[in-house]
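Possible regression after last week's pipeline update?

I re-ran a chain I had predicted before the update to compare outputs. Posting the input and the new output here so someone can diff against the archived version. Not blocking, just want to make sure nothing changed silently.
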Amino acid sequence: LTASPWDYTRLMKEILNRCITLLRTQKKCIYILLDEVGYRKKGNHSACVGQQYLGCIGKNDNGQVAVTAALSSGDFYCPVDIELFMPKDWDNDTQRRERAGIPCNKKHESKTVMGLRMIKKLYKKLSGDIECVVFDALYGINVDLLWQLMNKEIPFAGDVRENLSIYLSKPSWKLPAYSGQGRRFTKAHPDKKLIQVRNYLKNLTSKDFTLLTIRNRTKGVLQARYHMRKVWVHHHPSKTFLALHLLIRKDADGNVKYSLGFFNEKVTM
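New output (post-update):
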């Protein structure tokens, strides 16, 4: 594989072209799915191998990880871009890099940076076809990624963790009043209180959820209950509040998932 005569960029371009041609015939919404795939390895010479989290086994182990972008529509799914993640300790390991045939310009980047590059490239080519980008909490917890996608007006729905803090109404920056004790505030603070999404869930009842059919699966149709509302998330570098939609999903087995979405106001659950 290291010395393969194949040009993988041409191969992936051809896969993308064939994939989008097929998906367009389905007459259904098309989504970009950002994810990663892990491979367990025993040695330390395979390109970019190392101790890291591997989704295939759900824990840390020695292996390789690749960031992937795929297109999905209805029951169809196809990876159209894939790039190997390079752990930091490979940056200056000249011997292993040469043995593995890694180009000099390939450097360590976070998975978020890699994923954002893939999304931008695909959305630029397919913006007229794409409903939104979907990703898990590895990317969803990165508020800077969400901010950059919003700036590019790229719609998305990304999972977040249950301890994410949100505002239920849009905050303003205000200088807190002096209480008469301690030092006076010299910097403005948000004038609304934060609440974690898991605590927000505790205040909801069954009437706040809507039963929706999600998709087909081998054991029949998959259904879940959903709740959606507008929330605001603080983007610290820009000192702005991102207006997003919080989506809460409750499965029949009691499992709960939280997501943040950015899309046209007319989009329903």
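Follow-up from reviewer: compared with the archived run. DSSP finds six helices and 14 strands in the chain. Marking as no regression found.
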